[in-house]
Amino acid sequence: MAFNMHREWIAGAPLSAADGARCRHGWAASGFSLVEVLIALVIGMIGMVVMLQVFANFEGQKRTSTSGGDSISSGSISLYSLQRDIQQSGWGINAIQMIGCTLTDAGNILLQGVNSIPLVPVTINPPTATLPAGEGGTDTLLVVSGTSNSTIEGDLINGSVAIGGTVYPVHTPSAFAVGDYVAAVRADRVVGACSVQVNRVVSTVTNAGGLGTVTVSTGALAASNVNDRLFNLGAAPLIRGYAIRKMTAATGVDPNGVDKLTVCDYTTAGTDCTDADNWTPIANSVVSLRAQYRRENQNNAMTGLPDTWDQSFTTSGVTTFVQPGLGGDPAACAQMRVRAVRLAMVARSSQPERPVKDASNNDVPVWQSALTWSGSVTNVADGNSAAAAAAVSISPTSPSATWPMWNDFRYKVFETVVPLRNVTMRGVPEEC
User: Fold this and answer.
1) How far is residue 425's CA from residue 62's CA, in Å, rounded to a whole number?
2) How many Cβ atoms are within 10 Å of 395's Cβ, its own excluded?
3) For the chain, which ranges sit under pLDDT 70?
4) Which parts of 127-237 are beta strand (E)?
5) In this predicted structure, what is the pLDDT of residue 388?
6) Which of 322, 294, 315, 338 is nearest to 121 (CA)?
7) For residue 351, which phi and psi values (nearest 5 degrees)?
8) Are 297 and 316 in contact (CB under 8 A)?
9) Dihedral angle computed from the Cα positions of residues 305, 145, 430 and 381, in that order, rounded to the nearest 10 degrees
10) In sequence order, which ranges of 298-344 are alpha helices (DSSP H)?
């Protein structure tokens, strides 16, 4: 056998020496040696390592971006919800006869789990017997508002109502509807001890002249006289608490849970807001809530121009300017000086990030500075040399004692000032 010029076998032809050489050298060169195969394998492995590194870096960046986006969404939506409630706060309770009183409800006609709440638009850190404390270094808020479409000044009572009475003769019975919650308030407010009873309308009667009566479900605990007022809080008053809590869906409050912004409605049937397990999470990974009042210095005559940021509420100094002869009460006048609330809400990324190494091979966490907001510095009232407010810090807790620590996460601080427009609209009451 032999090859022709096209390297094809020729049957029957003898194999020459040249043909043998071509077989030995040509066919041997047509494959890969073991060394070549191993080199190719190493190159492939290096390429695979590079691709996996690129993929890991990309996934890390994507995780950072998406978790940061979730934090921004949680924080912004939470702040909007809280801001909306605070903007509406004080409606129907902002009259000088009403604001600052204690609303009592011994029969739990309206309130659930508690028998009284302060008639104050916004209370920062109310007593823990009313609103359980949140996570350490965070504030709690109690927001109160009526929802009635009738006058916020209350309707004049034009007849006497004895203790135990349920029928109130009023000027405008059409301002009330069956199911509305009401409270009778004395014209001569009890200074320093104002307490009003909540009741519910069961029927109204309007006479030919427009006058009529409002009948309530429970007998009055205090007598009412002519020129006292019956205030309408509406059919669904807003009474909500806000706090930061570690919670899980299965067990409620859990020290090992994720920080959440939680809310509780004090008017929801069967819900006891004094039990933190009954609170409802509305946003994940919100780790801090801080608040301050924007109020007018109580040591000066009221002008309607707030000049102080703080968390305290005191009637000290207000008494000097109150006009008791006009029905003024230091508790009410002090509340009228609060014109806004400043809020800070902090959202944390859901995923921690591994620390990077510095030049000395030490771990450097991703977050290296303290969290701050406008309330992080001590404020001094205009025209007042004394410190008006202590600094209110933002101090997120660490989810672990080792890793991750608080500074292994990324944060977003949301801040806003919410005017209490239902208080501001009252101007400077002559009683104050």
Assistant:
1) 48
2) 15
3) 1-30, 60-69, 249-251, 325-327, 380-389
4) 141-145, 155-156, 167-170, 181-185, 195-206, 212-216, 229-234
5) 47
6) 338
7) -115, 130
8) no
9) -20
10) 330-336
Under DSSP, the state recorded for 161 is B
State how far the Cα of 200 lies from the Cα of 198, in Å rounded to an integer: 7
Q: Give CA separation, 377 vs 99, 123, 244, 391, 397, in Å.
A: 30, 22, 22, 5, 21
DSSP designation for 8? -
- Dist. CA 410–CA 415, nearest whole Å: 17
Order of strands, sheet of 286-295, starting from the edge strand that comes earlier in the sequence: 308-310, 286-295, 338-348, 411-419
Q: Rounded to an integer, what is the distance from CA 244 to the centroid of its chain?
A: 8
Reported as a single tens digit per residue, the pLDDT across 293-321 is 999 888 888 898 998 888 877 777 787 88
Sign of CA dihedral 239, 243, 249, 253: negative
Q: Give the Cα separation of 186 and 48 in Å (integer).
A: 82
pLDDT given for residue 242 in this prediction: 98
Task: Tell me how far apart the alpha carbons of residues 285 and 5 are, in angstroms, rounded to a whole number.
Answer: 80
Neighbouring CB atoms inside 10 A of 192's CB total 11
Instruction: Write down the pTM of the prediction.
Output: 0.82
DSSP 8-state assignment for residue 81: H
Phi, psi of 19 (to 5 degrees): -65, -40
- Residue pointed to by tokens 């009003």: 196
Instruction: Tell me which DSSP letter residue 33 carries.
Output: -
**Size of the chain, expressed as the number of residues it contains:** 432
Kindly tell me the number of DSSP H helices and DSSP E strands found in the chain.
4, 24
81 is written with which tokens?
Answer: 């919800």
* 292 burial via Cβ count (<10 Å: 0-12, 13-18, 19+): buried
